[in-house]
Amino acid sequence: MLVVDDEMMVRALVGEMLRELGYTVCEADSAKRAIALVRKGVPITTIITDIQMPDITGIELAGMIRQARPEIRVIYMTAYAKEAAQKGNQLLNHDVLVKPFTFEQLESVMIERRQRH
User: Fold this and answer.
1) Contact indicator for 31, 55 with CB cutoff of 8 Å
2) What is the pLDDT of residues 5-31, one digit of tens each?
């Protein structure tokens, strides 16, 4: 599991919640770092990424990574529900968590993803 968010507190909190759910978690503070981890061969099955980040957006990041590793699943995070609605077609086949989200909401998304895959 890879958590990508340029905000340290968000990244750390989401990482901790995922660890509590039993996942092994890597964290990246930028899309460039996330790409480097994937290229290194770090075992990643799911990326949870913020949509709005400097330089490379979460949507662009997911596209780049999935070109090389299409099996990686993507969950988006955003503080802007309106933004998620506007990007609807791009997010159609992905889960979106609107910040701030609860432990229970994250857990629910993770359970649903396991059942679908």
Assistant:
1) yes
2) 999 999 999 999 999 999 999 999 999
By residue range, what is the domain housing residue 40?
A: 2-108
Q: Where are the beta strands (DSSP E) in 1-117?
A: 2-4, 26-28, 46-50, 73-78, 95-98
Indicate whether 93 belongs to any domain. yes
**CA–CA distance, 10 with 5 (Å, rounded to integer):** 7
Say which CATH number the domain at 61 has. Answer: 3.40.50.2300
Indicate the average pLDDT of the chain: 88
d(CA 10, CA 54) in angstroms, rounded, equals 15
The residue assigned the tokens 């480097």 is: 36
